[in-house]
């Protein structure tokens, strides 16, 4: 049972404001990190990885077929370089830098880099 007290004297004058309690904000819940594992092409359902004599897994490398994706043409590169020039609104720069950046962007988009 809580103890209660009676107030016997009344004070005159300005009353002192009650002290506020400090509130502690609850920490925000951390976002859950979702991780996924990708299955490599050498691993498939029911197959075992290749091994050497001491039973260590061996990584099998396959050649990349780059012939299926064509290199950017001269016209595509020049158009992209022109758009890069327009994007920087004529600010100082070099046409060679725009050209090389256009080549890199086009190759990156096609997966050649």
Q: In summary, what is this structure?
A:
The protein is mainly alpha-helical and 113 residues long.
Average pLDDT, to the nearest integer? 74
Give the H and E element order.
HH
As residue ranges, the low-confidence spans are none
Evaluate the radius of gyration.
Answer: 35 Å
Helix content: 25-40%
| Largest beta-sheet details | none
User: What is the oligomer described by this structure?
Assistant: single chain
Strand content: under 5%
First CA to last CA: what distance?
77 Å
Approximate shape? elongated
Strand-pairing-aware structural class: mainly alpha
Number of strands: 0
Task: Count the DSSP helices.
Answer: 2
Which labels suit this protein?
113 residues, mainly alpha, 26% helix, 0% strand
Describe the fold and architecture.
The chain has 2 helices and no strands. By secondary structure, the protein is mainly α. Helix 1 crosses helix 2. The longest helix has 15 residues. It is elongated. It starts with 73 loop residues before the first helix and ends with a helix. The mean pLDDT is 74.
Topology, pairings included?
Layout: H1 74-87, H2 95-109
């Amino acid at each position: 049972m809580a103890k209660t007290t009676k107030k016997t004297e009344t004070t005159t004058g300005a009353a002192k404001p009650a002290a506020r309690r400090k509130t502690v904000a609850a920490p925000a819940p951390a976002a859950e990190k979702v991780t996924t594992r990708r299955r490599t092409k050498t691993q498939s359902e029911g197959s075992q990885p290749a091994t050497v004599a001491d039973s260590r897994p061996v990584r099998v490398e396959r050649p990349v077929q780059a012939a299926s994706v064509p290199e950017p043409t001269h016209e595509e590169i020049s158009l992209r370089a022109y758009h890069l020039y327009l994007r920087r609104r004529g600010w100082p720069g070099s046409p060679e830098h725009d050209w090389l950046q256009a080549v890199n962007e086009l190759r990156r988009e096609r997966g050649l880099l």
